[in-house]
Design goal:
Blueprint lengths: L8 H11 L2 H13 L10 H20 L7 H15 L7 H10 L9 E6 L4 E6 L5 H14 L12 H19 L9 H4 L4 H19 L2
Length: 216
């Protein structure tokens, strides 16, 4: 079968080196034998579907008997992860190890990172599976730039602590003046050394910021 160079050559060469090795060949041969997969993998999706129905039925039976963890179905589900761990492959190789087990197909990840945007929450999940080359770092930057317009936007805020402190001064004034045991009326001008207009301006800005950021 002619190999298709779908993946980046670096990753493709890495997995090609793996599948050509005698230890990996032996492990896959044993696994295929134990799972009743043809020695060279399935030739068609129909063959795979027939096999999957059979091991799924076996799983249902073993589940009822409490032996599901040792079923062929569960061994197949766990095989890509276990082989990846044994041969020190990152998580993004799991699906390609699975393809190799089933179809003898040699493919590899296009990148060693993933960017998954989540529209409802307004964030993007970034996974890095291996040390990135300069080329991959540049592509990661491009990927982040593509999803950035869909993410929540937070611009830097100026003098927030000062504005909140000024907001607190009004609360302190009102608390003091509402106390029936007070000895005098406390003025905002007295508390702020005459900068009353600045305090009210800060309060208006805080209200505006909160409405823009937290009120939908």
């Amino acid at each position: 079968m002619e190999l298709k160079f779908i993946a980046r050559k670096k990753n493709y060469d890495h997995i090609l080196l793996l599948v050509s090795g005698p230890d990996f060949k032996r492990d896959v041969m044993i696994l295929r034998h134990n799972l009743a997969i043809p020695p060279q993998g399935f030739k068609t999706d129909t063959d795979y579907d027939t096999w999957m129905v059979r091991i799924a039925c076996d799983y249902t039976k073993t589940f009822k008997e409490g032996l599901w963890s040792s079923s062929a179905f569960m061994r197949f589900i766990n095989a890509p992860r276990l082989l990846s761990e044994r041969y020190h492959l990152p998580e993004n190789y799991h699906r390609y190890i699975k393809e190799y087990i089933l179809y003898n197909t040699v493919r590899a990840p296009l990148n060693n990172f993933e960017i998954t945007p989540s529209a409802p929450t307004g964030h993007a999940l970034i996974k890095v599976y291996a040390n990135l080359t300069n080329e991959e770092l540049a592509e990661l930057r491009q990927g982040i730039d593509r999803v950035s317009p869909h993410l929540l936007k937070y611009q830097p805020l100026k003098n927030v602590e000062r504005k909140i402190a000024n907001e607190q001064k009004i609360a302190e004034r009102d608390a003091h003046n509402s106390d029936k045991k007070r000895e005098y009326i406390l003025s905002l001008s007295e508390m702020s050394q005459g900068k009353v207009k600045k305090i009210y301006a800060d309060i208006r800005e805080l209200k505006d910021l909160r409405e823009k950021r937290f009120v939908k």
